[in-house]
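Q: Here's a chain of 94 amino acids. Please give me its 3D structure as tokens.
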Amino acid sequence: MLIGLAATEYCHKNAAGTVTGYLGLYAYLGAAIAGWPLSQVMAHYGWTGMFVLLTSAAALMGLLLMPLLIADVSKREHLVGPLSFSDDDTFKRF
């Protein structure tokens, strides 16, 4: 759900429906394809292996999305300027 929100945030407003549609397509394909490998992990390693695999995958996705977050923050600082709480007009920027 949040990945769809993030994707529509980074695309043009006229392409938001297309981006959401493609994300839905890939999500359904991923869910359909993931059943067999996850069942094999479950059969060989049990619930512990399943949770380790899902936690590792979530951590990897977080690391892979980190450059996107850093680029967004640096872009916003470039447009607005660095946020300093010593300025009197800090809240006027928002």
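Q: Can you summarize the key feature?
A: The mean pLDDT is 81.
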